[in-house]
Amino acid sequence: MARAGMERWRDRLALVTGASGGIGAAVARALVQQGLKVVGCARTVSNIEELAAECKSAGYPGTLIPYRCDLSNEEDILSMFSAVRSQHSGVDICINNAGLARPDPLLSGSTSGWKDMFNVNVLALSICTREAYQSMKERKVDDGHIININSMSGHRVVPQSVIHFYSATKYAVTALTEGLRHELREAQTHIRATCISPGVVETQFAFKLHDKDPEKAAATYEHMKCLKPEDVAEAVIYVLSTPPHVQYLPFDLGKGLWPKGGLPPTFLYPNSCPSGLGWQREALTLYLNGYPGLQAFSSPCSASPTPFPALQPNLGVLGVGGHHADYGKRTPGPSSQVDFTLDN
């Protein structure tokens, strides 16, 4: 069923990296269901080809186009964007989903493992972002969207040595998204930048990380209620369906405020604030975990938010947005510092 607000994206092109499984496959399917042309890329395209056939058989209005691309190779990435330009005019939405983890601690890990993570999680994301923006710019696309699928590991470091370097790459994604937001503002464009940071998602991630210990990998998903890839795909659709006049101003209040260590709910702010406050229209960060019951709110620049429908039942949206009374401050929160993403 077509989602309200997604009509403007129908027949336009989205690039989804890492679309062969997990979150990437779920996002690609969701976009095809909404009538988009989707280029799904990965090193192995057989799974994407199967998904494309499934989408076609299901009668979805969009199209999934498999493309083989080794994202650790810049020439492969540039060739992919060149092919998209020549065959489909260019990219309107870029979803940087591809990512990997290697079990290489800081004190004993292999340099090759670190390079693998850095090349895909940081460099490939940056190259795709640059090429997607240039594609939009040359075609005068001013409503494009760049979405980085990040991780809660990009906002906190957990005491698990095998993911410390992975966490460093995800912190880089957090910084790169903020930097991108500033550069888009300086370019005076309405192209948006979004960072979606899920908690634990039930995919093959843990099995690839702990490939020599499948029991440990399975235990990763057994001791907590995890997100499904479809939950993250739902968040992507939600983000894309928001009207241009809606903006999101996130910051993290830390753990310990909500049941099971969750973070407070998201606040959404329509772009109706008084002029001169310097609100940034491109900013959006969603923190996701599997805990039910968290709600979203909407307020026209007010300190008293009113209820806003949650994305869907049992989908936690974590993080909160500030209001203009808090503009420009950094204030200690109940359990940790408050990190604002506001700027002048």
UniProtKB/TrEMBL annotation:
The keyword Oxidoreductase applies. It catalyses: a 3beta-hydroxysteroid + NADP(+) = a 3-oxosteroid + NADPH + H(+); 17beta-estradiol + NADP(+) = estrone + NADPH + H(+); 17beta-estradiol + NAD(+) = estrone + NADH + H(+). InterPro entries: NAD(P)-bd_dom_sf, Sc_DH/Rdtase_CS, SDR_fam. Pathway: Steroid biosynthesis; estrogen biosynthesis. It is an enzyme of class 1 (oxidoreductase). CDD domains: Mgc4172-like_SDR_c. GO terms for molecular function: 3-beta-hydroxysteroid 3-dehydrogenase (NADP+) activity; estradiol 17-beta-dehydrogenase [NAD(P)+] activity. The keyword GTP-binding does not apply. Its EC number is 1.1.1.270, 1.1.1.62. Keywords: Oxidoreductase. Belongs to the short-chain dehydrogenases/reductases (SDR) family. Catalyzes the conversion of the 17-keto group of estrone, 4- and 5-androstenes and 5-alpha-androstanes into their 17-beta-hydroxyl metabolites and the conversion of the 3-keto group of 3-, 3,17- and 3,20- diketosteroids into their 3-hydroxyl metabolites. Exhibits reductive 3-beta-hydroxysteroid dehydrogenase activity toward 5-beta-androstanes, 5-beta-pregnanes, 4-pregnenes and bile acids. May also reduce endogenous and exogenous alpha-dicarbonyl compounds and xenobiotic alicyclic ketones. This is Dehydrogenase/reductase SDR family member 11. The lineage of its organism: Eukaryota, Metazoa, Chordata, Craniata, Vertebrata. The gene is DHRS11.
